[in-house]
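Protocol step 4 of 5: obtain the predicted structure for the target chain.
Materials: sequence only (see below). No template structures provided, no constraints applied. The aim of this step is simply to have a reference model before the mutagenesis design in step 5. Sequence pasted as it appears in the construct record:
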Amino acid sequence: MKYRMAGALLSLLGLLLATYLYLYKIGKIGTLACGTGSCETVQLSPYSRFLGLEVAMIGICGYGLLLILGLLGLQASPGRRSWVGRLLLVGSGLGLVFTCYLTYLELFLIEAICRWCVASAVIITLIFVASLLDWRASDSNRGPRAPA
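Step 4 output (structure tokens):
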């Protein structure tokens, strides 16, 4: 349960971060608070869109879905928690793979690093780890399986 709570809180944080980046992208925020780094270079690159969608909007949808799943898992009955946990693990795993792809683009094609993107990468990694730990904990609580 504590891992699912951590995942839900991290998903909320990721949702807020992705929303901030999307608001910048659609012109509702003048400049990004980036400090050192090349946030605007990354956000304005042609790679900031994936299959015609803004990457920040994909982040909003992904983190939003993970947040909903995390909250459902906190409220669900023990039987339902199992499939919610699996969905959290798969969803955060897909998010992690997508983040690795985006990080590759930053490093090798855009040749610029966005601090906000790095923060998002850390968040999705932590959500994946929390989901993995939750899945392992719930799997070990089921006891030994009968031989097939």
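Step 4 remarks: The radius of gyration is 17 Å. The mean pLDDT is 89.
Proceed to step 5.
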